[in-house]
Amino acid sequence: DTGVSQNPRHKITKRGQNVTFRCDPISEHNRLYWYRQTLGQGPEFLTYFQNEAQLEKSRLLSDRFSAERPKGSFSTLEIQRTEQGDSAMYLCASSLSNSYEQYFGPGTRLTVT
Amino acid sequence: TQLLEQSPQFLSIQEGENLTVYCNSSSVFSSLQWYRQEPGEGPVLLVTVVTGGEVKKLKRLTFQFGDARKDSSLHITAAQPGDTGLYLCAGSSYNNNDMRFGAGTRLTVKP
Asked: A interface toward B at CB cutoff 8 Å?
């Protein structure tokens, strides 16, 4: 399967702990996006990368959130000092830079207790 | 506040019925995508429309982009239980970086 993959699929953590998620995009896609989705809502944009450069960040992305894509391939999203409000599905998507079409991974479901 | 308003929010129908769901905005989009999402999974791209007035058909699904590129509709003919899911529309602005999603229409097709 050459689609977008995300790990882990599920993460349960205690409030105050740090968590890190990984996204592996479709191999030829140079754009990578992170979204957050809460129950009953559509995905909300967090940030995106063009190759290894992080070009845009939403105001939803607080200082506790950091994303990297060091070699322009896979990306990580880290949340420090997790809060219960961080509980959500974190989705990764990738696309070609000249395309409107984004392809999503299966997501990482985070539960903060 | 959702930039894209989807209606209805919930729809429950019997197998074989037809349905239309809507996606409306006050903003103009360079393109609009429709996705279907199943519980615990990521959205799966169904179609992209880019031209005002464009109509695309995908088997029993018909997608239309409004002339003013502010709204779209999805029509399903002879719905099947396998069509059950959350249907999301998403609009891309001209800078192509920031795709905004609606809250979705949750469709249930009963056998």
From this structure: 4, 6, 33, 40-45, 48, 55-56, 91, 93, 100-107, 109
Instruction: Give B22 to chain A, closest Cα distance, Å.
Output: 15
**Spatial CA neighbour of A94 closest among A42, A23, A37:** A23
Residue that is written with structure tokens 């602005």 in the block: B93
Under an 8 A CB cutoff, do B43 and A91 touch? yes
Judge: B41–A44 Cβ closer than 8 Å, yes or no.
no
What pairs with residue B27 in β-bridges? Answer: none
Buried b (16+ CB within 10 A) or exposed e, B73-98: bbebeebeeebbbbbbbbbbeeeeee
- Composition of chain B by helix, strand, coil, percent to 5: 5, 55, 45
Instruction: For residue range B42-89, list pLDDT tens digits in order.
Output: 999 999 999 999 999 999 999 999 999 999 999 999 999 999 999 999
Cβ separation A107–B30 shorter than 8 A: no
Using an 8 Å CB-CB cutoff, list chain B residues near A93: 42
Mean pLDDT of A34-43: 93
- Alpha-carbon distance of B35 to B48, in angstroms, equals 9
Is B24 within 8 Å of B38 (Cβ atoms)?
A: no
Tell me the HSE value of A95 on the side-chain side, using a 13 A CA sphere: 18
Tokens of B21: 């769901």
Compute chain A's Rg from CA coordinates: 13
CB contact under 8 A, B48 and A45: no
